[in-house]
Amino acid sequence: MALEKQEKEIFEGLELSQKNLIHFLHRIQARFGYIPPEMVDELAQKLHLSPAEIFGVLTFYKAFTLEPRGKHQVTICLGTACHVRGGKQIVEEAERRLGIKAGQTTSDREFTLETVNCLGCCAIGPVVVVDGVYHAHVSIDQVEKILKSATEKSHEKA
């Protein structure tokens, strides 16, 4: 899809106003999976902001990323309850299986692995979330199966 058509989809239906900056950023990230630098420049021009002002917003909100992310988002809780039940070892196993460290994306952009301080479901920890699906009471032995299930589900959709 040409960049021009993508831009039209991103900017249509909303007033080109600074008050809609967050909405536009969400649309851009939904379309590309991250915020590409050229879209920051385009957005800055359209909203009469400097790129630095937009980068300030992007770096303030953890929901936005400037790096391409994987097709599958893997989030592992390291809150106190999950940590004491083996959360750190689950992270290490996921890192080993994926060949990346937490905070990174695999070179094929299949997986992004991240950790969070708490997911708010301490009673069912350790918790691993893959593409929005919560896996409770996860053990090290389950990590491989959980990661494989993500790729199998995406193949079923194709």
Report the portion of residues in β strands.
5-15%
Which strands sit side by side, in order, in the main sheet?
Answer: 2-3-1-4-5
Q: Give the overall shape.
A: elongated
Write the CATH architecture name of the largest domain: 3-Layer(aba) Sandwich
DSSP summary, beta strand count? 5
Description:
By secondary structure, this protein is an alpha+beta fold. The protein has two domains: 3-60, no CATH class; 72-157, Glutaredoxin, CATH 3.40.30.10. It is built from seven helices and five strands. The chain has helices spanning 3-11, 21-32, 37-47, 51-60, 80-84, 87-98, 143-157; strands at 72-77, 104-105, 111-116, 128-130, 133-135. A five-stranded mixed beta sheet has the order 2-3-1-4-5, with helices on one face. A hairpin with a 5-residue loop joins strand 2 and strand 3. It is elongated.
Structural descriptors:
Glutaredoxin, 7 helices, 5 strands, 158 residues
Write the layout of secondary structure elements.
Blueprint: H1 3-11, H2 21-32, H3 37-47, H4 51-60, E1 72-77, H5 80-84, H6 87-98, E2 104-105, E3 111-116, E4 128-130, E5 133-135, H7 143-157
Parallel strand pairs: 1-3
Antiparallel strand pairs: 1-4, 2-3, 4-5
Q: Short summary of the structure?
A:
By secondary structure, the chain is an alpha+beta fold. It has helices at 3-11, 21-32, 37-47, 51-60, 80-84, 87-98, 143-157, and strands at 72-77, 104-105, 111-116, 128-130, 133-135. The longest helix has 15 residues, at 143-157.
